[in-house]
């Protein structure tokens, strides 16, 4: 900003603030950023799926234990 203020000083113009209204990224950079975001989403989805599979496996293991213990209790009679 000081560079702009210095450049306009000979005309008696004082620059106090500069605002950026629009930034346009090159298409290649937009694609790279989108690909990175997609990879991050996919990684998160894989973690969630793995956690779900782990919980399902634990539930099946517990159910097998219940069936096994009930089978032994019934077969003893």
Automatic annotation (TrEMBL):
Pfam families to which the protein is assigned, alphabetical: Band_7
Domain Band: 3-53
InterPro entries on file: Band-7_stomatin-like, Band_7, Band_7/SPFH_dom_sf, Stomatin_HflK_fam
Superkingdom of source: Eukaryota
One GO cellular component term: plasma membrane
SUPFAM superfamilies given in the database record: Band 7/SPFH domain
Family to which the UniProt record says this protein belongs: Belongs to the band 7/mec-2 family.
PANTHER family: BAND 7 PROTEIN-RELATED, STOMATIN-4
Record protein name field: Band 7 domain-containing protein
Organism: Necator americanus (Human hookworm)
Lineage summary: Eukaryota, Metazoa, Ecdysozoa, Nematoda, Chromadorea
